[in-house]
Each structure stands twice: as structure tokens, then as C-alpha cells.
# Entry
Amino acid sequence: MSRYATDRLIIVPDDIDLSRSPLAGHLDAETYVLGAFNPGLTRLANGNLLMMVRVAEALRTPIFDNHVHSIRWDEGRYGLDPWPLDLVDTADPRVFKLRGGGWRIIALTSLSWLLPVELSPDGLEVIAMHYDKAVAPENSLQCYGIEDPRISRVEDRFLMTTCSISPERQSTTLYSSQNGLDWVFEDIVLDHQNKDMLIFEGEVGGEYWAQTRPLGDLYFAYPPGSEWRAGPSINLATSKDGLYWKPHRKPGIRPHSGTVATARMGGGTPPILTPEGWISLWHGVEPKEIIGIYRTYWSLLDRDDPSRILRTSHVPLIEADPELTRPIEDQVYIRDVVFTTGIVDGGDHYIVASGEGDLACRITHVPKSVFA
# Structure
């Protein structure tokens, strides 16, 4: 049961019209919406909200002819790649792993593209789905799709970071817009496996700031008794123009040794400025089975030096709610996951957008008093 009076799913897979998908007409195979989730969020000039929804489009029957198939963009077309079943591990419904070799190599069971969805000012009603303005792969570094948009408005520009997937690199790419609806691809801004890049909604000391989350399979230990836990953490970076970024020498938000709930962590929403400082919502992952338990937490950062953490709450702000997905239980394929990706000011509350179970888009009205 949610702790908030307003907390509901606003977009579910059946709301997506795949006849208007960028993939429509390209594949000689039936597809379906595995998930419509992890939306970026911003407010448009007309007062409505713009939610950029990640649509994960998957094959209805990925396994045939003794192969599992994945979708790939190639020079303006979409096609299928076959992988022999005896070479792969399909335990995770989102990916399959290729066996053998000295590296962990995966392929995806879906290809993601981004759908702009216009909502009412309170985020509780769908006004329009802008299929004509969908953001889809357009070059080889995005051949396996575009994932997890985060939207920041900095002065008169909308900036959207995305994760672009390919065998070349798993990189962070930047789009910009003058109106929040028409997006232009700018460039790669962070290279391989640096995910969850969140640009602060405003400059600090005349510079752009961002949270980043580089991944790896090796971390150095903190000394015995440290309050921190070694592993993925939220770092900081600065930029003069939003394109070229320099890592900040001081750390950002780190996992705490006293709880396994943040054994793995990463950014959630672009930090927004309040009278007290920057509010940053982020996700912590408690180990459990293959995927883990994803929850949303928050920290308050100093307005002039975002590396200074003024307050952090170890009580989850938002948790997965099985009651929300009960009406679409037949489509649920993972549990215990909420992934918060957008926030806007709603007056006496914040309107928070999340992905629920890698399946649907969730809107939560969080009272500002929660952060006091």
C-alpha cells in the first residue's frame, strides 16, 4: 500500500500503439511491449508535463529454429540476429548471456525507443502521445536501442541524457530541445558503461553540473570501520557547455556500509534546487536473486558545492507497490523494482515519475514536507 494519497500508474504497455512504432513494418515477426517505463519528466511552456517514456519492444516469439533472436538497427532498418541456444543463458528475462570467453557478454531481449507523452499539469491525465516525435536509433552506437531518458531544463534549453546501447560502447548520449517536444541528437558525452547521468536543473558557479555513475567489475576497499561500502556510487562532473565533461575530484553520494539496501546505487532524478539546496532522488539496490530490490531514496546537496551532502534519508521515499500492477499481473515479469527518473515542482508537492517493475510509468505526488 502506498504511503502517498496520489500514487498511480499513468502508462501501461497496452497503452502503446505499436502500429506507430519506429519498428513497424521492418520485422517479419510479431512484437509486443515488454515495458513502457523509466520516463524522463519536464514541464512544457503551456504548463502541461512532458513524459519521455522508454518503450521496450520485444519479439513475441524470440526462440525459433533452435535460436534465440535479438532486434538490431542497421543503417535505417531493423532486423533480427540469431544466437544458438546452446551458447546462451536466458535466466534474466531482460537479457541473455553468451557463454564462453573471458568477458561477460550479453544481448537484449528487446529494443528500446523513446515516446514523448504529454500529460496534464498534475501528471494524472494523458493529453497526447506524440508518435511523430519519437526518438529512435539513428547511428551504429545506438543499434540495440536508447534507454532511460532523464530531462533537465537549464535556463532556456531542455537537455535529455540517454543510455545508447551497442557492441561498440554502452554510452551516455545527449539530446537537446528548445520546446521539450522536438529533440536533436547532440553527441556522446560519457563513454563506456557510465550510466544514470543527471544534469542539474541550473548552473552552479557558472558551470553545468551532473551526477554520473561509472560501472566496473573491480572496486577498491574502504578501510575497516569506514561508513562507506565499496561498489557503484554516484560521482560528479562539471562542464562549460554541457557537451564536454570533467570528472569532479570530490566524491558524490556513496553507498553506506551500515545497510545492504544501497549495496548498489545510482542516480534517479536530475537534482532540482530548493531554498535549502539541491534535492537528489536516487536508487539503492538490495541484493536479492538475479535483479535485486530497487528502492528510491533522497539526499540534500549544498547549493554552492554539490559534493557536500547536507542530509540523506535511509528510509525509502518510494518502494515497489504490487497493488499498482495487480490489474496487469499477467504482464509482470520482474518484481520489487521501482526506478525513479523524473521530478517537477507541483506547488506544495513534487510530481515524481518512476518506472514500476520495468513495466509501467508511475506518477507519485510527494509532499514537500517529506524532505524537511
Remarks:
- Helices lie at 322-325.
